[in-house]
User: Fold this.
Amino acid sequence: MFLSESSFTIIANKNCPLYNLGDEFMLTGRTLSLQGKPACLTLMDDVMYHIETFRNINALKKNRDTTHLFNCSGGSTGCPGEIRIKYQNEQSPSSDSQKNRDRHIAAIASELKSFSIFKTLSKSEIKNIVSEFRIRLFPKDEVILRKGEPGVKLFIILSGKVDVIGDYGTTIATLERGDVFGEMSLLSGNPVSMKVRVESDAKIMYVHGNYFRMILNRYPSLQMYFVQLLAQRLAKSNEERSRQIASGMAGNLSEITPTELLQTLNMTQKTGVLNLHMSNGKARISLRDGDLIRVEYNKLTGEDAFFEILKQIRGSFKFKPGLPDEEMDAPELGDFMFLLMEGLNRMDEESFQDS
Assistant:
């Protein structure tokens, strides 16, 4: 017996508290899969109503185009949100198409058997797991995960490469075929901690978090795999950060503001020279044990240069450990936190005047 499948996608969203533009849902037989999202009873009622309507034989005869649009009736229930949904009529796969799908899943399962995540599982277990995954091609430079966003999917790379980008715009790691990412946020419940960007065109499998947690409960060997993976990645991340701090840091001000960057250097008591390249010119800041020794920006020097640097939002930076001998004994420009707070207060006053 082959169960029919219906799919639908949110194509417009106005203040919906639960769902996002582009979210996809699936109905198989009488089972509604919300792909890792919480269940909204109003939405589910609307979906079932419209599916039953489109199943009507007369309606199908009149509508050769299997695409239908409808709005969620949330407004009538007091919900502040509104969404518009694109619905595809159910498709009952033929025996041939079902066989083709089975062969496709079997081929993927054979390929995945060599991946470290699946090595402890049988081919039939892998087939059961990957039947819920989707595959997508991601072009070079597309950002798959952004720092601070909630983690909702697990990703497995089939081909290509992705870069894991750290706090200062530097590459912490490059992942490729067989590697997994997205699991740390799913397991911890914390937001995504690092950006993931495609380094070369990549074909990637992904699945939503609810299904990921379900297969973890079902297959204890996968739990052990992810425990070991988390330990390895935390150790590597800490090692990489230590190496970066020892050899210097480089990145973009789009990744970290001058205020955050200078606070980091102050709190970690760094000694060295911070060079910045910005649209309005170059800047140089000398620090000794995290304190300001010398600041230059275009024709400005000292406090005035420091206050102007704090306002910048675009540019690149590079920190190089070590100071020239003449600056090792130079007096401090002033108390770092006092100067920082004064600069932020000036920025607030200018913003207020502009408004």
Summary: The two ends are 66 Å apart (CA to CA).
